[in-house]
Design a protein that fits this description.
Layout (H helix, E strand, L loop, with lengths): L16 E2 L2 E4 L2 E3 L2 H10 L4 E5 L3 H7 L24 E5 L7 H10 L5 E5 L1 H5 L20 E3 L6 H16 L7 H4 L15
Parallel strand pairs: 4-5, 5-6, 6-7
Antiparallel strand pairs: 1-2, 2-3
Helix pairs in contact: 1-5
Length: 193
Amino acid sequence: MPKRLETVVLHDSSTPVFGDIEKGGNVIITTVDTVLNQARANSLWPLTFGLACCAIEMMSTAGSRFDLARFGMEAFRASPRQADLMIIAGRLSKKMAPVLRQIYDQMPEPKWVISMGACASSGGVYNNYAIVQGADQVVPVDVYVPGCPPSPDALIYGILKLQEKIKKGQLPKSFKDLRMIETTPRKLDEVEA
């Protein structure tokens, strides 16, 4: 007769655990931040910023074959005031960089950015004076999707990674957060003349 191994579990199979949400019977114990992050992650409203060939691949993710709507992203927004996710698809010229920054500033907080393709992420094969060598020089980027051009499933994978990041409560970093902050103020020595 084989030995039977029994393990002690904290939750039975009827008590699912999602993140720090514990559900048992009719009671749910969680924080407001967790509920908000779950809602934000599952209802992203993308703003299209298609600049080159990657934009065709981005548009095909909303088609019937890949169906981005199953991840809570029903329609791409045309107005930055209605969007919270900017997908930069294609090469970003220095002439277009101020426009990108202006549109990013018009988006409400919290907002996220996906850099799609080699050109948007690092300049790609365009290492010259006219192309910005990475969209992160203009706006803070949360997820990079590599490829030239990346496939629609690569973009969907990048969106899933962004959703995981949002669910964990990692809000996007702004340029203000990225600056060096002194923890102890400097004291200037007085010099007598």
